[in-house]
Design brief:
heterodimer, A: alpha/beta, Transcription Regulator spoIIAA, 3 strands, globular, B: alpha+beta, Four Helix Bundle (Hemerythrin (Met), subunit A), Helix Hairpins, 5 domains, 5-stranded mixed beta sheet, 21 strands, 47% helix
């Protein structure tokens, strides 16, 4: 349970992919409470998948771990998150996401 | 009353159309700029909504598909390519024409029908890509019923029309009244099942104005409990918009059964009121996040309220942020309201009247100064001096109100340059500088035509085609630059191009051919360039629809002279031409030279006066034949203003010749006496004298006497004709 499980998602993460992504994250959590999600290739991040990521971060937190993001956040994705209030300023590096997403569990901080 | 609203709409629509033209030209350069597309959409949407509201149904109907196609561009379903922007620009022109026609019963023009047809075709293709037959304009019937409006616009219009018939309600979209709304949006758990994309709805809401959204994510469970197809997020939103509550509701019109939506209009405290800073605690209580007692306890700690509330877990960071955003938005709206109160729209006639009254006051003050001087009363002199300072301030202030930035005039030329360069097969970029430079609105209006002539001339004769430019080792795209800057009581407007410049030899040869100069006559470079402003002068090898008929540049010179300005040309062959126009800031005040003929006073615009020389009766009689006198080694034609204005009485023994420079020709004007410099407020001539040749206005002197303002340009034309008749 110590190693980080690394997942790479790509393309448009819309509702059609939400259940599949939730399944992948569950599986990854079973292997490690430390999750790292690479979003470099994500062209669209819609609400259902964003919720799945929140949920995975909460599960990881319960297990004493955390979920972090890595890679570069694409401009369109960032813009979409900014308009709906999930981020407050322009982010290029995805690891800044956890600091901006409201009430997103950050390692070592119980929400 | 209705007419008043209609006029308000017309004024507003004119401004929006001017703005729209600028936006479309920018869009042509940056077709994927979303902000530009949104701004363009807003302008068209406002024109459509307001047109419908004020009974301009024809415009509203015409604009409908224009708006739909723009919406496709906004949503990236279509690219605003050149063809689309051309259509948009043509549509804009048609709306402008319809606005001017103001005839609701008139059928759509052929041009309008063609554009409706093209838009419909684009819309059909988007909605049903199989449709590919372009309807012919003739086959296209004019819509008799307004086409189904988009959800947003239609419902907004309907809501506003059914609203109580009060002026403020009806004028709201035009007046851009900002309102601040607190919105709570909670999508139902199963909203995703209907295919609704919640973030898209929030994004659509954000297009209504300035919005801050704060998602509530507390209800998202851990992965084990999560149903990935359920929605767990809600939003606290603060929106500042001028579109009204109905447009907010319209965003959610198709999902109203699947969401919980609370919209509260927030009271924006009056400008200047201390209530402007709404307390954070008040907002949190209003939002139902904190109870009054808990707030009271938190406030006792003497620490920052937000920190205390988060520490005691009474609010989350997100809830606090939302409340702080609301506080900040309210403050902004209050500031904007204060700004809008500080700037009001006033009919230009009222400003003209104000300037007239200030003119009267200046005259009266001059009279007071003269009287107090004659009475040698020191107390009266002190009052007069104090009044003089106040009047001068008032005059400057009144004049400054009529000042407008030249940018709006510059913007109009973007379209001229775009259309004309395309017609001529040239690629030209228009650069502007000093758009903020202010000029009296009357001067600005009169500058329009001369500037159009110069620009057309530069495009037609100055700038080369891309091939010619490449051959001359120049970038294929030519540059036309318009700039303006203040220079004392004048503004210098420069129009420069990087074309092939003027051909001195061709100018000289043409001037000789036209008999404007002698074959062996040598002219300075400056003088040679000024020949292009002579009537009938043109070196263009062929006539074109654009210029080259030899009319235009002389009109430019005449107009600039009439404005009391001057023209200067610089040109380097192969490198380009610059035309500088030096224009007085205002036409309402004139720096003049006060002269007397018998008992009558005249004012000659000082900017054109070059010298004053004496004329004795003997000299006049000697030189009288051709009315020519020796001046600086040259022959100077002169005219006797006493004769010109038929002033009765005998001329004195010694008189003065005022040498003026008009239309780049020197001319002497004979007067009895030169009194001196005189700054004066120009007043229009009454009906009796309005058409008098050689007079452009009048002014009242300190002692109440009327002085007439001489129009050099007209006198010069009359004199030229007289000399020509005599010579002939």
């Amino acid at each position: 349970m110590k190693d980080t499980s690394r997942l790479v998602f790509s393309g448009a993460l819309t509702i059609e992919k939400a259940a599949d992504i939730a399944g992948q994250l569950k599986k990854a959590l079973a292997a490690s409470a430390q999750l790292s999600v690479d979003v470099s290739e994500v062209t669209d991040l819609d609400l259902p998948v964003l919720q799945v990521l929140y949920a995975a971060a909460r599960s990881a937190e319960k297990l004493g771990g955390s979920l972090v993001f890595e890679g570069r956040l694409q401009d369109d994705t960032c813009r979409k998150l900014a308009t709906s209030g999930f981020v407050r300023e322009k982010i290029t590096v995805a690891d800044q996401l956890i600091k901006q997403l409201p009430d997103f569990p950050v390692s070592g901080q119980a929400s | 009353m209705i007419d008043k609203f209609k006029n308000a709409f017309r004024e507003e629509a004119e401004e929006l159309l001017a703005q729209l033209e600028g936006l479309l030209l920018e869009l042509e350069e940056n077709p994927s700029d979303l902000e530009l597309l949104n701004a363009t959409f807003r302008a068209v949407h406002t024109i459509k909504g307001s047109a419908g509201m004020f009974g301009f149904e024809r415009i509203s109907r015409f604009v409908h598909d224009f708006e739909t196609v723009l919406d496709f561009c906004r949503s990236k379903r279509l690219t605003a390519d050149k063809h689309i922007v051309d259509l948009f620009l043509e549509s804009r022109d048609i709306v402008k024409t319809m606005l001017a026609e103001d005839n609701e019963k008139a059928p759509f023009s052929q041009e309008a029908l063609r554009i409706i047809g093209e838009f419909k075709h684009i819309v059909d293709l988007q909605e049903d890509p199989a449709a590919s037959v372009v309807p012919s304009p003739a086959a296209e019937k004019e819509p008799t019923e307004p086409p189904p409006a988009t959800v947003k616009a239609g419902s907004e219009l309907a809501a506003d029309q059914s609203a109580p018939d009060s002026a403020s309600t009806r004028l709201a979209p035009l007046e851009e009244q900002l309102e601040c709304f607190r919105i709570f949006l909670k999508p139902g758990k199963e909203i995703f099942f209907s295919g609704t994309r919640v973030l898209k709805l929030v994004a659509e809401l954000s297009e209504l104005g300035e919005m801050q959204a704060y998602p509530r994510t507390k209800d998202i469970p851990s992965l084990e409990e999560l149903n990935p197809e359920h929605c767990y997020v809600a939003w606290d939103i603060v929106l500042t918009t001028s579109k009204g509550i109905n447009s907010i509701r319209d965003v959610f019109i198709f999902v109203e059964d699947a969401i919980e939506l609370k919209i509260e209009k927030l009271d924006v405290p009056d400008a200047g009121s201390s209530a402007g800073n709404k307390k954070l605690g008040e907002i949190l209580i209003e939002r139902g996040i904190v109870k009054a007692e808990a707030l009271g306890d938190a406030l006792k700690s003497q620490r920052r309220l937000g920190e205390v509330l988060i520490e005691s877990k009474l609010v989350t960071q997100a809830e606090l942020n939302a409340a702080l955003a609301e506080q900040s938005q309210l403050r902004k709206v209050q500031e904007k309201t204060t700004e809008s109160v500080a700037s009001i729209r006033v009919a230009s006639e009222k400003l003209d009247f104000l300037v007239d009254l200030v003119g009267e006051l200046v005259t009266l003050q001059a009279r007071l100064a003269q009287t107090s001087g004659q009475l040698a009363d020191s107390s009266l002199a002190a009052i007069s001096e104090q009044l003089e300072r106040l009047v001068a301030q008032l005059r400057d202030n009144a004049m400054s109100i009529r000042m407008l930035p030249i940018g709006s005039t510059f913007n109009k030329f973007k379209r001229v340059v775009r259309d004309l360069s395309s017609e001529l097969g040239k690629d030209v970029e228009l650069l502007t500088e000093g758009a903020e430079t202010e000029l009296d609105k009357t001067v600005l209006e009169r500058l329009n035509d001369p500037l159009v002539h110069i620009i057309r001339n530069a495009l037609d004769h100055g700038l080369e085609t891309p091939d010619d430019r490449r051959a001359a080792n120049k970038p294929p795209r030519g540059v036309l630059k318009l700039s303006a800057e203040h220079s004392g009581a004048h503004v210098v407007i420069s129009i420069s191009d990087d074309g092939h410049g003027m051909d001195m030899k061709a100018i000289h040869a043409k001037a000789v051919e036209r008999g404007l100069i002698g074959a062996g006559e040598v002219l300075s470079e400056d003088d040679a360039f000024m020949l292009i402003f002579r009537p009938g002068f043109s070196t263009a090898k062929s006539l074109s629809s654009v210029s080259g008929r030899g009319v235009g540049m002389d009109v430019v010179k005449r107009e600039i002279d009439a404005l009391g300005g001057s023209v200067h040309v610089k040109s380097t062959q192969g490198a380009g031409t610059t035309i500088n126009l030096k224009i007085p800031l205002t036409l309402a005040i004139i720096e003049g030279l006060l002269v007397r003929i018998s008992q009558e006073y005249y004012v000659l615009p000082l900017s054109s006066v070059e010298a004053c020389i004496e004329l004795t009766k003997t000299r006049d009689e000697n030189e009288n034949e051709g009315r020519l006198m020796q001046y600086r080694g040259d022959l100077l034609p002169y005219i006797d203003l006493r004769e010109f204005f038929a002033v009765p009485g005998d001329a004195p023994e010694v008189r003065q010749v005022v040498v003026v420079n008009t239309q780049n020709e020197k001319l002497g004007m004979v007067v009895d006496n030169v009194i001196g410099d005189y700054q004066t407020v120009i007043k229009p001539l009454g009906r009796m004298l309005r058409n008098t040749n050689g007079l452009s206005g009048a002014t009242i002197l300190g002692d109440g006497t009327v002085a007439l303002i001489v129009d050099f340009a007209r006198i010069a034309i009359s004199a030229r004709n007289t000399f020509a008749r005599k010579a002939g």
